[in-house]
Structures are given as C-alpha cells and as structure tokens.
C-alpha cells in the first residue's frame, strides 16, 4: 500500500509517500530524521511500517524545511536511509 | 426560530427481507466522523440495518446514538452483536468497539461491497476531509491520499455555503445548474476566502444560482487536483455526503472525463459498512461465531 501523507494547497503539493510493500520495518528512517517526523505504526493490514506522524501531516512543508534548503538540495536523510526505496517526496 | 439551511435529514433503514434471529454472525461498524456518524449492522455478510446521524459534541455518545438508531424497531440489542468495529475520526472513542480500524481501510472495503469488485478508485468527500483511495478487487487499499487541511471539497464547506446563500443543502446541486451560462469557478480554494468572494459576487448582483455554480466548480477542480496526484483507474466511485450533490459530482466527472458508478446504498455509510465487513471477518477469526 502506498500511503500519501501531507496536503495540497495554493502553493503546491506536499506529500511524503511511504510504500508499505517495500518498507521492511528496519526503522532506519526514524533515527535519521532530525525533525522527528516519522514513526512506526501497525497498519490496518497488520504490517509494521513507517508513517508520518499525525501532528506533522498538515504542516509537512514546514516540518521538513530544514532538510530542504531552497538552493542546493542535499539528499534527504530519510530517503537516503531507506535502502529498499520505500520513501518518496513530492516536492 | 431561524432556519438552519445546512441541516440535512437524519434517518435509519432496515432490510425487511432479513430475520436477524436466523443469523449466526451479527456485527456492527460505527463511523464517527466530524460531521456525521453512521452505524451499519450486518448479518451473515448481508446488509441488515443502518443509521445516519449528525455527530454531537461527544464522540462516545454519538457512537451510541448511531447504534441505537440502527437497532430501533429491530428487537436486536448490543448483546446480540458479536463484534463491533469503530472507524472514522472518533474511532478510538467508540465505547463498545472491539477494534478500531482507519476510515481509509474501511472505505475501501465498504466501497467494494457497495459498488462491486470492479471498483478501483474511490473518492470520499466527507464532512471535513477528502480522500482518494485505490483498491484491488477485494477492496484492499493499494494507495491512498487524505487531505484534511482545509474545508474545501468537504461537507462542512458546503454547509457554510448553504447558510450564506440561505438555500437548503439538498437543493444546492440542482440549483447550481439553473444558470444561463456556466460562470468561472471562484478563484479561492479556501472556504473562508471563497465565502468572502461569494459575498462580493452577491453584492455585485450575481444570481444565487450562479454563485453556487461558481463554488461547486471550484470545489470540483480542487478535488480533481488531489485525484490526479494518485491517478484515477476505472471503475470510479464517489462516497461521502458530497456524492449526493450533483452540482459537484457532475462537474468533477466532467473534468475527469469519466462516469462514476451508481451507488446501491446511501454513499455516506461506506465507512461504517466497511467496519461491519471487517467485523464479520474478525468475528470468525477470533472464534466468536458459533458453528
Ligand atoms: S525530509 Fe528530513 S525532516 Fe522530512 S521526514 Fe525526511 S528526514 Fe525527516
Ligand atoms: S527506512 Fe525504509 S524500510 Fe526502513 S522503516 Fe523506514 S521506510 Fe521502512
């Protein structure tokens, strides 16, 4: 299952997508994230997978701002940490 | 008393062809949403009864009211129910629930029952959020997106408009087509700004129906942007309160250039129905159904 967490507003699309079919539950992304955006959940189909915390979903653009400077963008820690490539960002 | 234009009718329904006393597996799904709450009772995999009510200020009480109303005149009580699933925004506050399941998974499963196994993309326009869900032939969620940041494209947004224009909410869809020429959508996607914009248009002498048309198409366009992020695969179905508003639905399917499936039941019960279906499976799995 691909879960899109975030929102769409006048300034654009801000979604973090986590693919539970790829996520192995290794928790690497959780420890890599400087803003404590991610957590592990047991989803409705009983898979233990990474997810964006509820309190960050409506302000994800700001929560992730530190990792996304406007000029040169370094690789995102969460994306780099995820070996199976389960995490993608829309912006 | 002032007229409450936003108020829609609460009601319940039961299947006259079913005698629940013959049933082995009786379950309930309760969806406590931000605006409305539904309870759906299933007997041996069939839809037996349901209710649709406004959510009060207290989630546990709203859940109980919805259940009581669905049980009304059936002779059934909570004791006859083997398994209860709570879903929706207030899902963890359903006092009699055996398990809470997210509305995403419940809507997927409910829509699969309501529209059949060919449904692949479900758009749910609820009271305060808007979801796009892709499911497989079993109703299992493959991808989802939920937007609950603002009220545009939601029931609450529509209620604000019904009140502003003093038009009963059920009439909005039809009236929005009674225009000489389809106006440009209002430019604001935020309900608060759209309301201000609409007030301005009324002051400029726009007929109410034109303002409604401009608002319905703005809502439709906004939702199209969300759907396109996930992608739409047919068959396509719309659930939630707004599914009843042709003013939004027809414009939306027009923009997407596809048809939405016709529902067999009230589109607002999809979440609770999915909950009752999960409960049917869980009751068997946990050995609660007598053999
Ligand atoms: S981009 Fe940075 S802040 Fe955002 S989730 Fe990834 S690691 Fe965390
Ligand atoms: S790093 Fe990737 S695989 Fe590991 S828990 Fe996070 S999302 Fe899942």
Could you explain the architecture of this structure?
The complex is a heterodimer of chains A (91) and B (291). Chain A is 15% helix and 32% strand. Chain A contains three helices and five strands. In chain A, the strands form two sheets. Chain A has a three-stranded antiparallel beta sheet, with no helix packed on it. In chain A, strands 3-4 form a two-stranded antiparallel sheet. The longest helix of chain A is centred in the N-terminal third of the chain and has 5 residues, at 28-32. Chain A is globular. The model of chain A has no long low-confidence stretch (mean pLDDT 92). By secondary structure, chain B is α/β, with parallel strands linked by helices. Chain B has two domains: 11-110 and 269-285, Nucleotidyltransferase, domain 5 (2-Layer Sandwich); 120-260, ATPase, nucleotide binding domain (Nucleotidyltransferase, domain 5, 2-Layer Sandwich). Chain B is 36% helix and 20% strand. Chain B has eight helices and ten strands. The interface between A and B is medium-sized, with 15 and 22 residues. β1 of chain A pairs parallel with β9 of chain B. Bound molecules: iron/sulfur cluster (2 copies). One iron/sulfur cluster (SF4) is lined by residues 18, 23-29, 50, 81-82, 84, 86-87 of chain A.
Secondary structure layout plus pairing:
The complex is a heterodimer of chains A (91) and B (291).
Chain A (H helix, E strand, L loop, with lengths): L1 E8 L2 E8 L8 H5 L5 E5 L5 E5 L7 H4 L13 H5 L5 E3 L2
Antiparallel strand pairs in A: 1-2, 2-5, 3-4
Chain B lengths: L10 E4 L11 E7 L3 E8 L2 E9 L4 H13 L11 E5 L11 E2 L2 H13 L5 E5 L4 E6 L5 E7 L7 H11 L6 H4 L15 H13 L4 H23 L5 E4 L6 H11 L13 H16 L6
Parallel strand pairs in B: 2-5, 5-6, 7-10
Antiparallel strand pairs in B: 1-4, 2-3, 3-4, 7-8, 8-9
Helix pairs in contact in B: 2-8, 6-7
Bound molecules: iron/sulfur cluster (2 copies).
